[in-house]
């Protein structure tokens, strides 16, 4: 396995691609005029409390107010304690006009404001600091019990020795790292939090207190873990900043950070640009000639698996099984590349053999193990669907790069020329009953006018005879296929 991180930097946009054996696995995009807000800490002002939703809206200085649920306002349970089954009334937790320190946990998406939490966290290379908690934990992605105990004991001993308040979580990247390097992040996080508390006392809500690092440095902190072999960046300025950051926080990465100066664009070199274009297409081809159809909606995303031109060699069940196995791996990659989150419903081709179902689910789970976002699979439903969730913190690739079509307004379809012609007939009848004019002038797109003068010419003649008036047609080049106008002459 050969993994590389490719970083393309321009004045308006930074793109980070995680490539495995030449195949794009993840893509992160940050634009200079619209940086993400996840991880930012604000001193906000509560503008509205909604008891019926157990939530509140908080003004943090963004275009739309943020949203915080009562669960994000209650203290985190201590280790060994169960989370309370019933939440207190939110009116006992916050009131309108109150100043509140919050952190963005999910970027604004579509018409929804940012999702907020009062459970503040600060990240370093190996640790996550939680100033309002006393919990010390280890990432669930570290499976080895001995390693988990080693890391937890090292952090707990350092916290006790330095008499530090707050809790810590050991990040996945700390696996196999010497204990002194891991606990070496603690003074940095303490100093960072002290600086934030000083700014908090002087800030007037709404105000930003802390902003997360730019994408180039976050890629070193969050993505650069084993088995990354090379980190290539096409900006010398960013290369210098990344090396300085690595020298201070992750010296083991210095030797693999490379400044790319080739003539060919970095992302073109690895075919990433073509992958981005394909990631905006709902249809995804499989090597077996089967294909996926991925459709995103406001509430959920659906993925449909089809055999396509793949006919197999033995029998139908074997053909279906091979297609589903290939689709399981492809789906996991597409979710990462497209950054699809929320509720996801996977419609695999129906399998009769329970062992085949188990193997397909296991393949999907195995492929999702490398996903940086938290995923949860519920299994196969009674309808044969696989339901899963993937944590969503920012817009998907399609939402970031695209906008709704101005013609169909996001429907994905436009009315046929035939349908529009019949609408024109009905409108003329309505106008003929209401007004006493000499003739009608129909303004429409060329496709609609051509049909009215050709296939529907007989209907037009019958309509003229019925209403006793002349109907003329004129092409309006600026009209879409659905638009038309009827002028009374």
Please summarize what this structure is.
This protein has 13 helices and 24 strands. It is an alpha+beta fold and 489 residues long.
Describe the structure.
The chain is an alpha+beta fold and 489 residues long. It folds into 4 domains: 3-35 and 214-273, 2-Layer Sandwich (Nucleotidyltransferase, domain 5); 42-210, OB fold (Dihydrolipoamide Acetyltransferase, E2P); 281-401, no CATH class; 417-488, 3-Layer(aba) Sandwich (Hypothetical Protein Ychn, Chain: A), CATH 3.40.1260.20. The protein has 13 helices and 24 strands. It has helices at 145-162, 179-183, 185-202, 215-223, 236-249, 266-269, 272-279, 316-338, 354-368, 397-401, 417-434, 446-453, 457-467, and strands spanning 3-9, 13-20, 23-31, 41-50, 55-59, 66-69, 99-106, 115-117, 122-123, 127-130, 136-138, 167-170, 207-210, 228-233, 257-259, 283-285, 291-296, 300-306, 342-347, 375-380, 386-390, 439-444, 470-475, 484-488. Strands 4, 5, 6, 7, 8 and 13 form a 6-stranded antiparallel beta sheet that branches. A hairpin with a 4-residue loop joins strand 4 and strand 5. Helix 8 (316-338) packs parallel to helix 9 (354-368) and helix 11 packs across helix 12. The chain is globular. 29% of the residues are buried. The model has no long low-confidence stretch (mean pLDDT 88).
């Amino acid at each position: 396995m050969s993994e590389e991180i490719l970083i393309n930097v321009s004045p308006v946009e930074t793109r980070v691609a995680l490539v495995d054996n030449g195949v794009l696995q993840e893509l992160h995009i940050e634009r200079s005029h619209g940086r993400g807000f996840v991880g930012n800490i604000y001193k906000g002002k509560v503008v509205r409390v909604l008891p019926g939703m157990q939530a509140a809206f908080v003004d943090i200085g963004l275009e739309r107010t943020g949203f915080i649920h009562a669960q994000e306002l209650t203290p985190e349970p201590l280790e060994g304690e169960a989370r309370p089954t019933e939440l207190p009334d939110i009116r006992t937790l916050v009131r309108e006009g109150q100043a509140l320190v919050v952190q963005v946990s999910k970027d604004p998406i579509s018409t929804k404001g940012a999702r907020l939490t009062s459970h503040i966290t600060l990240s370093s290379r190996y640790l996550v600091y939680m100033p309002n908690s006393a919990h010390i934990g280890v990432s669930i992605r570290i499976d080895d019990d001995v390693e988990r105990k080693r890391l937890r004991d090292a952090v707990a001993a350092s916290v006790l020795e330095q008499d530090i308040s707050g809790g810590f979580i050991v990040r996945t990247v700390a696996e196999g790292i010497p204990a002194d390097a891991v606990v070496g992040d603690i003074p940095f996080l303490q100093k960072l939090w002290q600086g934030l508390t000083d700014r908090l006392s002087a800030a007037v809500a709404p105000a930003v207190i802390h902003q997360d690092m730019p994408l180039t440095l976050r890629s070193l902190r969050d993505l650069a873990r084993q088995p990354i072999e090379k980190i290539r960046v096409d900006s010398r300025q960013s290369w210098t900043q990344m090396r300085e950051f690595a020298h201070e926080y992750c010296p083991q990465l210095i030797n693999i950070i490379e400044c790319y100066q080739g003539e060919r664009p970095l992302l073109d070199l690895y075919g990433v640009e073509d992958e981005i274009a394909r990631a905006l297409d709902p249809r995804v081809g499989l090597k077996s000639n089967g294909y996926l159809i991925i459709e995103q909606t406001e509430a959920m995303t659906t993925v449909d698996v089809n055999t396509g031109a793949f006919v197999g060699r033995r029998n139908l069940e074997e053909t279906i099984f091979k297609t589903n196995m290939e689709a399981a791996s492809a789906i996991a990659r597409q979710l990462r590349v497209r950054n699809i989150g929320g509720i996801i419903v996977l419609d695999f081709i129906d399998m009769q053999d329970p062992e085949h179902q188990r193997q397909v689910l296991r393949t999907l789970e195995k492929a999702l193990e490398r996903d940086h976002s938290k995923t949860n699979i519920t299994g196969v439903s009674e309808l044969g669907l696989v339901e899963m969730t993937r944590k969503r913190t920012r817009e998907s690739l399609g939402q970031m790069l695209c906008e709704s079509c101005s013609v169909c307004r996001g429907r994905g379809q436009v009315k046929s020329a035939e349908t529009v012609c019949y609408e024109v007939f009905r409108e003329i009848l309505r106008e003929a009953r209401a007004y006493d004019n000499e003739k009608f002038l129909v303004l429409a797109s060329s496709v609609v006018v051509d049909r009215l003068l050709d296939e529907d010419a007989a209907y037009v003649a019958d309509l003229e005879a019925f209403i006793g008036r002349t109907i003329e047609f004129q092409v309006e080049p600026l009209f879409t296929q659905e638009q038309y106008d009827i002028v009374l002459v």
